Amino acid sequence: MTTEQYLEAITTEYYDGSAWVDITAYVVGDIKGGNGLGGWKPENRVGVLGTLNITLNNKSKFFSPMGNDVARGLSTLAGFTRGAKIRITGTFRGQTEVIWIGRIMSIDSDDMNWGNEQARLMAVDWMNVPVDFPMKGATIALNQRIDEALTLILARLSLQPEATDFDTGSFTFPAVFDNVQRKTMALSEFTKLANSELGYIYVRQDG
Predict the structure, then answer these.
(1) Is the pTM here over 0.85, yes or no?
(2) How far apart are CA 94 and CA 97, in angstroms?
(3) Cα(130)–Cα(201) distance, rounded to whole angstroms?
(4) pLDDT digit string (tens) for 1-49?
């Protein structure tokens, strides 16, 4: 006999610059999202871009891409804006864990004239950073393990992860970044290293 288990609570929060603010009460319908490794095949060795989609009850005009705007009757919550951190946590048997964490990419709000009074939010996780960050100008590094090469890549990126936990590589590459082109993105170097090492890479910015 199989017994189904469910989370006791799912909480949605955003970071206002000083503290996490609970907005669970405004969430309408299902939360849709995903992140992490997509499988164990070679093409899945680097974590895919994680996305999150949430619909919020916006009757009080708390959620707007325009910020506070008295003329339009908006009173956006402090710090709730594009680029703000957002996370989903789950509680099971008294243990709370982060399920998803990232940053708000877009806020699409319907005002009262349309009658829907909802805001649709789309967020992306940290893996969005290496997707768009060019490796232009990276110099060749000699005798590097994968963890050392990853550290060099991360040092170049515009938004740093707040912590990393890399296993020590089992292989030393004679040279890395030796084939970087003008349009080579950091994610491409992640993929090249992971495939060469037969390892897996997924980076989070935990907030």
Answers:
(1) no
(2) 10
(3) 12
(4) 566 677 778 899 999 989 999 999 999 988 998 877 677 777 778 887 8
Residues 6+ apart with CB under 8 A from 169: 145, 146, 147, 148, 197, 199
- How far apart, in Å, are the Cα atoms of 48 and each of 107, 156, 205? 22, 20, 14
Mean pLDDT (the chain, rounded): 84
What mean pLDDT comes out for the span 154-174? Answer: 86
Task: State the alpha helices, DSSP H only, in the chain.
Answer: 128-132, 146-156, 186-197
Residue carrying structure tokens 């515009």: 158
Count of C-beta atoms within a 10 Å radius of residue 5? 8
Element (H, E) at 33: strand 27-36
Strand partners, 92: 95
